[in-house]
Design brief:
The structure is a single chain. The chain contains 8 helices and 4 strands; from the N terminus they run E-H-E-E-E-H-H-H-H-H-H-H. It is globular and about 50 Å long. It is of the alpha+beta class. A hairpin with a 2-residue loop joins strand 3 (57-60) and strand 4 (63-66). The protein has helices at 12-24, 68-78, 89-124, 130-150, 164-177, 180-187, 190-199, 203-208; strands at 3-6, 29-31, 57-60, 63-66. The chain has a 4-stranded mixed beta sheet, with helices on one face.
């Protein structure tokens, strides 16, 4: 069964899906036609496979899906390997709850408003305004406080086994730690710092971390 993920490995959302694929041991390919860098992505004709020209897009044996939540649920149900979505309705609801929090609040603040403007600013020589960085830092801190509190007494959101929400979180924390302002935010939250120490040793993380 052929499985291709349209997107760039550097994308936090593409990476989150690849982490889940690695956890389940599913072989796959990843990439976009005509580009290898995020700033070139808009040129790729593959984006036309998504009605809003976004990534990731999954293609499996001629069937396509887009949006991270739908893709992760499909992979977990279709492929062998460890079951990553819980069996009980309440725990499945919790998994969806935390994935929604990350996708709706943490990722937009941490990646879209903080990390990407700083990185793009360094590449182009036009750094973001200090007021914008301050506002994004405050938004990111609020989201991380919620996540840090949820992980105080457990390895992952639902206990000892990662769920889709965990895979969505790890790339965000990794990219935050690459910037001084983001590294401080993570370091100030013990549960998140401890989490990333453990995550970096996981085979799936090592296998998929963008180079």
């Amino acid at each position: 069964m052929s499985l291709h993920l349209y997107g760039l490995p550097q994308s936090s959302m593409v990476w989150s899906v690849r982490l889940l694929l690695a956890e389940k041991g599913v072989p796959h390919t990843v990439g976009l036609t005509g580009c290898t860098e995020l700033f070139e992505m808009s040129k790729s004709p593959d984006l036309d496979l998504h009605p809003l020209r976004k990534i990731p897009i999954l293609e499996h044996d001629g069937k396509r899906l887009f949006e991270v939540t739908a893709i992760m649920r499909y992979i977990d149900r279709v492929f062998d390997g460890p079951r990553l979505l819980p069996d009980t309705p309440y725990e499945e609801g919790l998994a969806d709850q935390w994935l929604s929090v990350i996708m709706a609040y943490v990722d937009p603040a941490a990646i879209r408003a903080l990390v990407l403007p700083i990185v793009i600013g360094k590449m182009t020589g036009t750094p973001p305004e200090e007021t914008a960085v301050t506002a994004a830092t405050e938004r990111t801190a609020k989201g991380l406080d919620v996540i840090d509190a949820a992980l105080q007494d457990r390895n992952f959101f639902l206990g000892d086994t990662p769920c889709p929400a965990d895979f969505a979180l790890w790339p965000i924390l990794h990219y935050l730690q690459m910037l001084p302002v983001g590294a401080r935010l993570v370091k100030q939250r013990p549960a998140l710092s401890s989490l990333m120490e453990r995550v970096r040793a996981r085979p799936g993380f090592i296998e998929t971390v963008p180079t």
